[in-house]
Amino acid sequence: xxPPGITVRExxxxxxxxTKDAIEKLTQLPHNGLPDTHTGFQPVRLLCCRTHHGxxxxxxxxxxxVTKAYDEFVAVDKLSLRIPEGEIYGLLGPNGAGKTSSIRMxxxxxxxxxxxxxxxxxxxxRPLLERVGYLPEERGLYKRMxxxxxxxxxxxxxxxxxxxxxxxxxxxxxxxxxGQWAQAKVExxxxxxxxxxxxxxxxxxxxxxxxxxEPFSGLDPGSSLQLKNVLLELKKQGKTILFSTHRMDTVERxxxxxxxxxxxRSVLRGVLREIKSSYGLSRVQLEYEGELPLLSDPSxxxxxxxxxxxxxxxxxxxxxxxxxxxxxxxxxxxxxxxMVEPSLEEIFLETVESTKAVPSHA
Amino acid sequence: MRNLFLIIGxxxxxxxxxxxxxxxxxxxxxxxxxxxxxxxxxxxxxxxxRRVVVVSSDPVLGNAVRAELFASHFSGEEIGPEPRESGNSxxxxxxxxxxxTPGEALRQQLTAELRHGHxxxxxxxxSDAVTNRKVTYYSRNVSDVIAISLVGRAVRMALGQRxxxxxxxxxxxxxxxxxxxxxxxxxxxxxxxSPTNGLGALLLPFVLLFAIYMTVLIYGIxxxxxxxxxxxxxxxxxxxxxxxxxxxxxxxxxxxxxxxxTQIVIWSASGAxxxxxxxxxAHRLLGSTIQDAHIAPAVLILxxxxxxxxxxxxxxxxxxxxxxxxxxxxxxxxxxxxTLPLLLCMLLATSIIGDPNTPLSFWLSMFxxxxxxxxxxxxxxxxxxxxxxxxxxxxxxxxxxxxVWVSSRIYRVGILMYGKRPNLSEILKWLRYx
Lengths: 362, 434
Hints:
The structure holds two protein chains of two kinds. Chain A is α/β, with parallel strands linked by helices. Chain A has helices at 17-27, 99-106, 147-157, 162-175, 191-203, 221-236, 248-254, 272-278, 321-331, 344-356; strands spanning 7-8, 49-50, 59-70, 73-84, 88-92, 114-119, 122-123, 132-135, 209-213, 240-245, 257-262, 265-271, 283-290, 301-306, 310-315, 332-340. Chain A has a six-stranded mixed β-sheet with strand order 8-9-10-5-11-12, sandwiched between helices. In chain A, helix 3 crosses helix 4 (162-175). Chain B contains 16 helices and six strands. Chain B has a four-stranded mixed β-sheet with strand order 2-1-3-4, with helices on both faces. In chain B, strands 5-6 form a two-stranded antiparallel sheet. Chain A binds chain B through residues 71, 104, 107, 109-111, 126, 129-130, 132, 134, 136, 138-145, 153-154, 156-159, 198, 201, and chain B through 2-3, 6, 10, 14, 229-230, 233-244, 416, 418, 429, 434.
């Protein structure tokens, strides 16, 4: 997980695993030792990373109790999150959840009404932004300027010399198969190509921390694959990536940790693997031929999504999957039976649904 | 600072290397020249020869009119808006025949000839023309003002001579009596007196006024469109990840302004280079007048000062407008109230050039939105007291400071607002955002 050069101080070194489990159960630490503003719970921070520079750099980015309101409307409400170095971090949420506002505060486009933003362990200042790459959701390049000029201009704003910027721009364009378009104007490019150019603009200055807002939207499968490989390679180089999206499939495959926001608040956050396993193997995937009358049995099935010869079943609480299999076999031929964790999409929908009930704040 | 220069550089280069810049640089002097010169050329471009018949029962009077019409072509007397000139005069030459005894048959015949184009005009003098001082001029083109006024003058002169000789003056005495008087306009200022011609003194402020007006307006609107472009292409948000809104706005205004200054420098330099050639051309077009027009050093120094002040004021306003709207179409209605003071300057320019020291001129040269242009006009016509120039510049700078404060706030919020056009109360709210 961690890039080379970083050691994790193991807080439980020498402690028997049973004791460790007991401690964790007792303290119920939120991920990354983050204070949970909604419960008022103030945990002790246990994890600490030491970079190869010898300075303590806990997190690439920390939002602490950040709030932003536009007149009456509270876009971001006491949001706290911490992005560990070297991770791909997913910022998820339905449209209008406050993702873009949060991101804008991370890079100083907007100033929070209250709360603090720390970048690379320091309070946010403009010079620090030279080490940040930003791919906004609203893509934008100078339409009447050439691709290469656009890239070089944006890289120079980040402090890269024009010669070096040109060299890197050519490299990246070749890599993303846009080499022959370097001298074309942006308006001559297809939308997907423009997306790729925009991505290059976000990474050309080799930032340590990248904020990518919906990087995959509008890309064809080939380009998506290309981009995914690039992202993984950047991660391998030790870069940290914040990745804002509502496309769960990519998040599920790429992200180490996530923060799910809804109505400006963080409603779920943590290491993705842990979140998913906390839901347990509560889903059954069934490929079948025939009929499944058991789907209407509330003691077994809490919900399902039937595709005719394939069904995804949400088990009722306390239901025995073995009994479900036995029932299913009575009227149908079972080709595949698998118990799985819920998909992130399900968790997302469920969490968003359950937090909707919370009365509106402000 | 580095980013500010990068933005200035981009704004500058992207404009200077376009074909539009080249065209504008070449066409603008032609346009200004056209606006100043064409009207006077158009007013004085009738066909060179008029075939006119003078019909009079009194052959002596008829011949006198004929003689005056001939003479009018060479006369130095001012009769219309066109400059006096000798040689290839824009005035029509007359080919005059005199016919006696006005009668219905002759009238029929002459009007028929007029209709067929064998004749250009008929001066019809009835027997009571002398007592009534009234003649009729028949022509296909009654809007040929110059010809009509020349005919009127010729008849007046002829009648005058006739009456004076009737009172016993000799023809020679009469001639002296009617010979024109020439007026030499001499401009007096602190440097002393310099002989200039009225028209030259009038022309120069107009040309400079036009140059300052066009560049302020055009480059101000460039700034606005540049903001709208960055907003609508959404490149704004990418930029804001690297630069502050203030840097962006300042860089844009300075960069575009530098293009305007470049243009002015090119015009002045080519003007100076062409120098004598330009004067010679102007001389040929306008007569001797422009030769005497000279630019005082103070005007040369103050031109860039007032240009920069005027441009900065309007560019700041236009930048704020650009930030408020989403498209050029939406901008149009915000643009109008801002452009109004500029238009006002142009409309009042003639009267201010004519009389630069009225209270109206004074107050317009102090009001921040008109002062750079009007004060400059006043400077180029006759140097106002120094305290007025200093005060005008000071007011301009102070208001510019306020405008930058307001605009940068509108800009900072507006550039991230898409969709609905804000109303006034929303914009006022923006000013209070941190």
